[in-house]
TrEMBL record:
Every Phosphoacetylglucosamine mutase AMG1 domain range: 198-300, 319-457
Phosphoprotein listed as a keyword: yes
Protein name: Phosphoacetylglucosamine mutase
Protein family (similarity comment): Belongs to the phosphohexose mutase family.
Cofactor binding mode and count: Binds 1 Mg(2+) ion per subunit.
Organism of origin: Caenorhabditis tropicalis
GO BP of this protein: carbohydrate metabolic process; UDP-N-acetylglucosamine biosynthetic process
Amino acid sequence: MSFLVVPSEFTRAGNTTHTGEKFPIPDDEKFSYGTAGFRFDAKKLPFLVFRCAYVASLRARQLNSAIGVMITASHNPEEDNGVKLVDPSGDMLNGQWEKYATEIVNASDAELPSAVAALEKQMSQIEKSFIARGLVQNARVVCGMDTRVTGPHLMSAASQGSALFSVRFENIGVVSTPILHYIVKSHNFPQFANPTLHGYYTAIKEAFMELYMETEEPEGSRYQPKVIVDCANGVGAPRFRDLMKEIPSDYLEVEFRNENGRLNHQCGADFVKIKQELPENFDGIQEPKSASFDGDADRLIYFRSKKGAEKPRAAELFDGDKIACLYAMYIQEQLKAYHETKPTYNIDMGIVQTAYANGASTRFIRDTLKMKPIIVKTGVKYLHEEASEFDIGIYFEANGHGTVVFSSHFDSIIRRHPQTLVPLRRLALFSRVINETVGDAFADLLAVEICLRHYGWSMDDWAEKLYRDVPSHQVKVDVAKREDFETTNAEQTLVKPIGLQEEIDKTVAKYKESRAFVRPSGTENIVRVYAEADTLENAIELGETLKKIVLKY
Ligand code: G16
């Protein structure tokens, strides 16, 4: 039996919110890990974060490494909070450990000691071999939080949870989710970067400034080195300000908006993407190039006011798909120049999307870039895994969450060797501007600016030279239980509730050039409807019709 001693405020029965209010969690209430960790009303979370941090500390001891705990509910409303666990490589938590975390979180107070003992028993053999080799000193839990008011109380729960077995706890304060991923990786791979906030800023800044010097703006360039950033009133505001203090404004000028208001309210990448609307404090005048972060700054969407739109405040989006295609063009161009030198080793590249990818982007990748896009389930963990199959794997969700990952083969032939060829130097630097541990709004923004400068493009050019989006519409549908909706086929076909998919198919068939699907969210208690059609009016009509059909079930 485990010696687990749980402070009463972090038991299910004694669960206590950040205001000191007791908010007990019934034994039969179940929590699932979801698309990106546990995410609920913050009142429910102190006991849950305590247990997750304990699981993280076990994982840290098992691997004798740093493990990350990020306290955030990202794009969700301010009242929610959540916890994401990060593996030693900086990637999302391993799937088997998601299951362990779910078991521990869902145990009743009475069941907890035996659930914990069972898990510890499995770990102890592995850990013993580390101890025998004197190797437990690297185990630590590194914890960050976003700007939510409930963050500090949950940080305290995490600190006490990971202290149960004396694992070192490091509170890195208010950071973006990608910064936490980066620092975790830096702890475990010291050659990657210094494992501090400043280490992150320095590494990204230096790579950006070097790559900037390697980039030649073409004659007649229409590129403008200025961007107005909607910070979603979240962590992007303080942390991107810190990073931009390191980069001279003649390289890139950033104007900050939405820094101190209500988190994700009428602003942020999720709002702009779903509503296709300008965020609060933007009026479309004198704002040639703008970009939105989400609450924890792991998503990036560029936008501008939509010309000639009937709807006031309509936004034209340069979303995750357009960013992925821009990166793909740039990388492909550098690789082409490299392969023309007939090198001993080829470098391959791939691109991964989800069903939300605009149909026009998928066609552009296939027909213009001559690449075969891979479509996977929603959730960056799935995209990351597929992209890791390539030497250079680009992955993006349409909602602006994505990055580029580079293989060890790429490292061995490019990143680790000083290169004389300009395209190779550019690729090596690009791989360092990008935060390959996870989608990072800051790093992605800097990489977009490099690509636009390289091509000499204004927003008009970016819009015209790639593809025009197929009209699309997304709706969130409030449902009693999202668990009643089950999908297959990379989440594009519903298998439950029985009969619903048939109705969807019949409705979609009534519209020209249409495509639609319905799936339960893994982060909110809603079902998402996505619809494409020949015109925006038809896409909206199709989406809203499907919403009504979903509500009947
Ligand atoms: C998270 C995930 C993303 C996912 C999004 C929405 O983003 O990391 O991969 O696309 O949730 O997921 P769902 O449609 O299941 O609600 P974030 O930025 O909220 O952490």
